[in-house]
Amino acid sequence: QGSLRTGAEAKVGALFDILDAELGRHGGPWLLGDVYTAVDAYALVLCRWSRRMARPGRDWPHVGPHARRTLERPAVRRALAAEHLAEPWI
After folding, report:
1. What is the pTM of this model?
2. How far apart are CA 5 and CA 3, in angstroms?
3. Residues 76, 44: contact at Cβ < 8 Å?
4. Tens of pLDDT along 45-71?
């Protein structure tokens, strides 16, 4: 089980590397630049799913701030409350 988890976390980490590089490449606040879209919300979901990994998504230099910006959005806060999701969200 430990090696399975380690392998899965390595694969997820490689995907966070890609996500982080894209956020850093264009320097905008959102994945597609200046406009918030559904992909930003989905990136938050992925970041949330990783919160108990050895290196969670929030630890990447661009992914973490992106997730925190997403969490500041009122609609995101309402969705988290509607789903009864407790902190920590990421």
Report:
1. 0.90
2. 5
3. yes
4. 999 999 999 999 999 999 999 999 999
Tokens 């989905």 -> residue: 42
Instruction: Name residue, tokens 């988290």.
Output: 80
User: What is the distance between the terminal CA atoms of the chain, rounded to a whole angstrom?
Assistant: 24
Contact between residue 47 and residue 63 where contact means Cβ atoms under 8 Å apart: yes
Instruction: Give the integer Cα–Cα distance in Å for 27 and 8.
Output: 29
Four-point Cα dihedral 17, 23, 80, 49, nearest 10: 0
Q: Is 63 helix (H, G, I), strand (E, B) or coil?
A: helix
Residue 90: C-alpha distances to residues 2, 12, 56, 87 (Å): 23, 15, 8, 8
